[in-house]
Amino acid sequence: MTVAGQAGAPGAVASRGQRALKLVRRALGLDVPPPDHTIAILHSDESEAPGLDRRERAQLDRIRLMGATGTVLMAISALGIGAQPVHQNPTSGMRVLGIFARAHTGSLAMCMVGTVTVVLAWLLLGRFAVGGLGGSPLHRLTRRQFDRTLLLWIIPLCVAPPMFSNDVYSYLAQSEIAARGIDPYQEGPVAGLGIDNVLTNNVPNIWRETPAPYGPLFLWIGHGIAELTGENILAGVWVHRLLALAGVALIVWALPRLSVRCGVAPVSALWLGVANPLVLFHLIGGVHNDALMLGLMLAGLEFMLRAIHGIPGNGGPPPLDGRGWALLIGGAVVISLSSSVKVTSIIALGFAGMALARRWGPGLRPILAAAGLLGLIAVAVTVVISTASGLGFGWLYTLNTANAVRSWMSLPTALGIVTGFGGVLLGLGDHTTALLSITRPIAAVVAGFITVRMLVATWTGRLHPVGALGVSLGAIVLLFPVVQPWYLLWAIVPMAAWATRPVFRAPAIGISAVVSVILMPRGADLEVFQIVGSAVATVIVSLLFIVVTRNALPWRAQQGVSAPSQPAGAYGGTS
């Protein structure tokens, strides 16, 4: 080998190492100029807008009544085709109210009409919240008008039987197991309560022998509910719904405050993130604990950002004095509590930590300091909850319980199922299980990479922590092995406070509307002809309603609804 060749070899190795390092930095987003950061195009500041005029207020009253009518129809139909309990059904045997359970087709048609009516009312309300997809509304409804509308739509669903899901009966059974001093992370309802127990008989068959997949805080609260209500199913459902409503109330409190930090109108964020039919139908109607998880996560994030960035409009970041540290630590505790309901929300602590590290200065030392502080708080809270509740740490081993379900909304699961079905058609055999063991880990790696990329973007200041959190949760949801319809809210709710461009809002609105309409209420075995007949009736009724109200409701874009060229910037963001 020549002297030149010997001298060139180390240089070539160094050059390759530099190129590899450059690729890694580019992949993580460390060397990406802000204008080229593709995720940033999801956001633009919104401007303040004057209130509705007299004509628009009249239209708002009609929209409000329209949505309330839809939820009332849904509540009535739930008496027949909702997720009614097998035992202790309060309408069983009643001559008047029991007719809905005997007329499944009529009840289903009523529920479908109500569902579509609520979705259409929500879309019409969006005329006065976000305007057209291409710009802000010229006139926007006030927060008071929105709150009154939301409350009117929620009330009928609060008193209705559970709909769209039987999960609340699993909550009751698992809570009763804990109340009896049995480990719900070791025993399912059949082993813990017995096959003949009234609570066990209401749990869907697929979950009767599986342990609880929820965190210790939720089951600790459930333990108290079980002590209060015993085996009274109706009372247990009511208390769990109050818990879900408390979670929704936390979302209503935190979301507009986070949206102002991001330069987004509070009513816009609340319309997409709280008045969303997925929230109404599944978090409230379906009594899901995701409401509590999201509420605690967003409230904790607001507390932490209040300590890190201050309150928008009050100058720069406040000093980390006693009050600042109380807000910071208190917010971290609240987020840790949310992860003790469902563990997914713990990643919010990472994004708040990156915002804190950015405030402390450049370099790795602030990141390590923030990670150490917040990690210590999360571990301490988890240990205290797990120990004080007496439930221990068995929940760490049951997080994958739901993976037994093959969800069509999960991208890796759908890919594995479709590919496996293709193998059957080609005569190669059914290899779906083997394919799922490949697609799901790959999807987990991709979701992890996207999360790391969003954390780096938060640290470098290219993305607001609220937006980066929403994008990360969106990747986790879509690439999760199991995706239930209400899981979409994990991403939609925080993203509603940050993402305003049509590239996000259009699919978010479309998916929310379509998923809300196509899902069937549970509690009755329905035949195909019943579903088809009810769907046809719903289409006819909806079209007739649109024709009759074409001039009374803003079905078409009209003057005063949207102003794409309106200047932005009235709501101030912090980063």
From TrEMBL:
InterPro entries: MptA/B-like (IPR049829)
Family the entry assigns: Belongs to the MptA/B family.
MF terms in GO: glycosyltransferase activity
GO cellular component terms given for this protein: membrane
Membrane topology: Multi-pass membrane protein
Protein name: Alpha-1,6-mannosyltransferase
Residues spanning the signal sequence: none
NCBIfam families per record: MptB
Compartment(s) of residence: Membrane
Superkingdom of this protein's organism: Bacteria
Membrane-spanning intervals of the chain: 63-83, 103-125, 146-164, 238-255, 267-287, 325-356, 368-397, 409-429, 441-460, 466-490, 502-522, 528-548
Keywords associated with the record: Glycosyltransferase, Membrane, Transferase, Transmembrane, Transmembrane helix
Species of the source: Nocardia jinanensis
